[in-house]
Automatic annotation (TrEMBL):
Residues 1-32 form the signal peptide. This is DUF4185 domain-containing protein. It holds the Pfam family DUF4185. It comes from the Bacteria. It comes from Microbacterium lushaniae. The lineage of its organism: Bacteria, Bacillati, Actinomycetota, Actinomycetes, Micrococcales. Residues 50-354 form the DUF4185 domain. Keywords: Signal.
Length: 511
């Protein structure tokens, strides 16, 4: 991945994204970024072309993170980090003086069917109708640059939001915090009060609870933390839900027992880790911890919050989603189907992702399509051995503002005949599959198709479309029948003039 640009004077700087997502140096090995990505994209949650229309409804044109928790009253609250409005042009975070920079915003959702996306229904708003900043910040580098949400939990009718006060951003993967704090709301997130409960950082920037994640199990809230930046290890504490604001009530895991002293806390997962999300999964009876480690989002599992924790499983690889970070569980994930919010730098927005685990907490049923987001190179092949094939004029566009995710997408374009992209994929005979992908076309397109066919060209299942303006998701369910391999494809007839089609984030999983 490329280094992040330094901001020009007078430019608002985004949060965790601007701090960089390059592999960290000197603190343990970063995971290989050529690992396959087993998870799939459900939808874009925020920004242009997002079904939620966060830009038009609340002036959330660009944002990141997406920390989710159950408000205890039938809704999910989702807190985003540094957020920019109409003046944002991208790629990446930050905007000019008219970018309507807010350090944090929040939306609400009662949508329980996440298979087709997550509907946002409301947001705390300013009198002008835009999503309002919840926890104020000075926006002065070297003093307090921003305040970024890292965790949320409900206790009775009260909402608690953990956040970090960022003093300044540094080189990629490094930033300094003043403290980690807790804000609370008694009106379902509409208004927030910053409490006096803080974990002050030390002069060396090594306090292990500067970025926190909450998970409730039994009679305790477990608080997982890392230092500022992306080089630290994971530590854990616990507290009674009724005493969230009582710093003296916290107990820290010292390797043998729960200690009153924060100084006794020892790592439960080695560095590097950052931007934690922890979920207790009833299906596997395990704690699931998602984190950015090096350049990839990974997941660890454990039966107890103090561990022992398993080694990392790659959830999403930066080879497929360059500039990825975050990874925040949706708390209503169930029955082994897990949903989470993932951020990307170039689109500087968030995506709802899906993965599946078994009873042991192992990721299963991965995406069978290789290079699903077209990010692993700029050339095409013949459609075999994990490559994409296509009918000329065709190829891979590198245009970050135009792609659905990341920096690249596939295209075909011509003025006569059938033009398509394809890939041969191994499947199990007699098995039900679901194919998904995101497509858009020129306005004069009148005969587009997305689907699966046999290697000799017989259609097994397909969706038909005409003109597709914004990026649109198509879903095709089919049974593989006698086939041991299929060819997934997206194409368009170009007999009506100069016609083009673009495709991105294609996935094939078992139903």
């Amino acid at each position: 991945m490329r280094p992040r640009r330094r901001a020009a004077a007078g430019t608002a700087i985004t949060g965790l994204a601007m701090a960089g997502v390059l592999a960290v140096g000197g603190v343990g090995p970063a995971l290989a970024t050529d690992a396959p990505t087993p998870v799939t994209v459900v939808e874009k949650l925020t920004g242009p072309d997002a079904p939620n229309n966060t830009w038009g409804r609340w002036d959330i044109k660009a944002t990141d993170l997406g920390v989710m928790w159950d408000d205890g009253d039938g809704r999910i609250l989702t807190a985003f980090g540094d957020t920019f409005g109409n003046g944002w042009v991208g790629p990446g975070g930050g905007s000019g003086p008219n970018g309507n920079w807010r350090s944090n915003v929040l939306v609400r959702s009662s949508d329980r069917d996440l298979s087709d996306g997550m509907l946002f229904e409301s947001a705390p708003q300013s009198p002008h109708g835009i999503a309002k900043e919840l926890i104020p910040s000075k926006k002065v580098s070297g003093d307090e640059m921003t305040t970024i949400p890292t965790a949320g939990i409900s206790v009775g009718d009260r909402q608690y939001m953990g956040f970090m006060s960022v003093r300044q951003w540094g080189e990629p993967g490094y930033w300094d915090t003043n403290y980690a704090g807790i804000a609370y709301s008694d009106d379902d997130g509409e208004n927030w009060t910053v409490s006096s409960t803080k974990w002050e950082n030390d002069a060396e920037g090594t306090n292990p609870f500067q970025m926190q994640a909450y998970v409730r199990k039994g009679g305790d809230v477990y608080v997982f933390g890392t230092p500022n930046g992306r080089q630290g290890a994971v530590h854990v504490a616990k507290v009674s839900p009724r005493k969230m604001l009582d710093k003296g009530a916290y107990r820290y895991w010292d390797g043998r027992r729960w200690s009153k002293s924060e100084a006794d806390a020892v790592p439960v997962i080695d560095a590097p880790a950052s931007e934690l999300s922890v979920h207790y999964d009833e299906f596997s009876k395990r704690f699931l911890l998602m984190t950015l480690s090096g350049e990839d989002i990974v997941m660890h599992t454990a039966k107890k919050p103090e561990g022992p924790w398993t080694g990392p499983q790659v959830v999403a690889s930066s080879a497929d989603y360059p500039g990825l970070y975050g990874g925040y569980f949706h708390p209503w994930s169930a029955d082994g189907v897990m949903y989470f919010a993932m951020s990307q730098w170039s689109p500087y927005n968030t995506y709802l992702m899906r993965m599946q685990i078994d009873r042991d907490g192992v990721i299963v049923n991965p995406n069978l399509v290789a290079n699903p987001s077209f990010e692993r190179g700029t050339t095409v092949g013949d459609g075999t051995n994990g490559t994409w094939g296509c009918t000329p004029n065709c190829g891979i566009d590198t245009a970050p503002p135009e792609s659905f995710s990341g920096d690249r997408n596939a295209f075909v374009r011509f003025n006569s005949g059938w033009r398509n992209i394809w890939q041969d994929v191994d499947v199990q005979p007699g098995t039900d599959y679901r194919l998904t992908g995101f497509v858009r076309t020129s306005i004069n397109s009148d005969a587009g198709f997305f689907g699966a066919r046999s290697l000799d060209g017989q259609v097994i299942g397909e969706a038909h479309f005409i003109s597709v303006g914004p990026w649109t998701k198509f879903t095709v369910d089919f049974n593989s029948g006698a086939h041991e391999d299929v060819q997934v494809f997206a194409g368009v007839w170009t007999n009506g003039g100069d016609i083009w089609l673009q495709a991105d984030d294609i996935a094939l999983i078992r139903r």
